[in-house]
Amino acid sequence: MNRQSAKCVTVLFALSAMCMIAFTAATVWAQDKQKYAFKPPPGSAKYTQQTMIDVGDVPGHQVRLLELHSVFPGDAPVFDGVKEKEGWLRAFSDYTDANGHIFGYTVAIMENGDKIFGRIEGVTQTTVGADGSKTTRTVSTNTLTGGTGKFKGIRGTLRGIAATDFKNLSENGTEGEYWIEK
Asked: pTM for the whole thing?
């Protein structure tokens, strides 16, 4: 075999090895992703604190600091076989007439004492029906950023939709996928 043929064989071998490694890594990565879907029972989430401040530039423009607490005594969301006992959302909203953006942080407290942390962003829209009734819905994305114990390396994206009257949530539901980095 001449020198040029040997180089071609070496390059082909290296490319084949890289493809196998990439394929194996992609397969392992796909296997580690877990689906998540949960629709909490009505009344499981309540606002514990809210402070609203008028911005003063246009009527109805307010910034709000809020805390929402969820408790799951029976049917609970499950991450990697462990039930979530309670959840906290601490966030900031910037709304004009209940339309605008929300940004904050989530903490899930698991049945085994571990925690899962997330960063949430969303858009809230309020519509007025023909009868004058208002419906306020938020579409959000919660990026899982880590945790404690078993969930130290958790990552993922959860997409949520919730309706609110700014006292309670209704029609709340979340779905997405997550994985635990080792």
From this structure: 0.80
